[in-house]
Specification:
about 220 residues; alpha+beta; L,D-transpeptidase catalytic domain-like; 5-stranded mixed sheet; 4-stranded mixed sheet; about 45% helix
């Protein structure tokens, strides 16, 4: 094929130039630009790999730092859980110790401790008198406060006594009154009728309580 036929747009003085181009193509000189293009593409690929590797290396320390932080947090949580378990065990041991001490201090056969002089059980509706931790009188039947006006549970002390007591609130007699909490007292009244907060006793028992209990005597009311 002639140069004129393959490149019809070349004319006149351009024939020599066309011939030079054809010679260049024939000798493979055009491979250089193609090789350069391939090398450039390869270079770009290597560069991309280097950038990716660099990014991975840069991110890896961050992941390591995050993992280290997470490990530290897990360790801290484990220590906190162990401390909480230890505290709970200590609290349980303390409660058991207190329960044991309370059991030792409790007078035999009554819900009150050994220091009580008078003991009242709201659940049993019974009362006792004690001396040096031992029951010396009782149990005796009592009637404590009704649901709307209950006898309070707790530790109290005798603060007033009167043989011929009288309730100004209810305009009623209160023989052998021994007051231990505000307007509440041991006194004679039917033990079949719930009170307004006092502890009803039979006449005989009310008199005995009156004579036995001195000022300041500890009165314990328990459920």
């Amino acid at each position: 094929m002639s140069i004129r036929r393959s490149m019809p747009y070349l004319a006149g003085g351009s024939v020599l130039a066309a011939a030079a181009v054809a010679a260049t193509l024939a000798t493979g000189a055009s491979a250089a630009p193609r090789s350069e293009a391939v090398d450039a593409a390869a270079a770009r690929g290597i560069s991309a790999q280097v950038v990716a590797a660099g990014a991975q290396n840069a991110v890896s320390p961050q992941f390591a730092a995050v993992e280290a932080s997470a490990s530290a947090m897990r360790l801290a949580l484990a220590k906190a859980a162990a401390a909480a378990a230890s505290a709970a065990a200590a609290a349980a041991a303390a409660r058991n110790t207190v329960s044991s001490e309370t059991a030792v201090l409790r007078a035999e056969g009554v819900p009150c401790d050994i220091y009580a002089v008078a003991c009242v059980s709201l659940s049993k509706q019974e009362a006792w008198l004690l001396r040096d931790g031992r029951v010396v009188y009782g149990p005796v039947r009592v009637a404590t406060g009704r649901a709307s006006l209950p006898t309070p549970a707790g530790n109290f002390h005798v603060w007033y006594k009167v043989v011929d007591g009288w309730s100004t609130t209810y305009d009623a007699p209160m023989p052998y009154s021994v007051f231990f909490y505000e307007g509440d007292a041991f006194h004679e009244d039917p033990v079949t009728v719930r009170s307004h907060g006092c502890v009803h006793l039979s006449l005989q028992n009310a008199e005995y309580f009156y004579r036995f209990l001195g000022y300041g005597a500890l009165v314990e009311v328990r459920y």
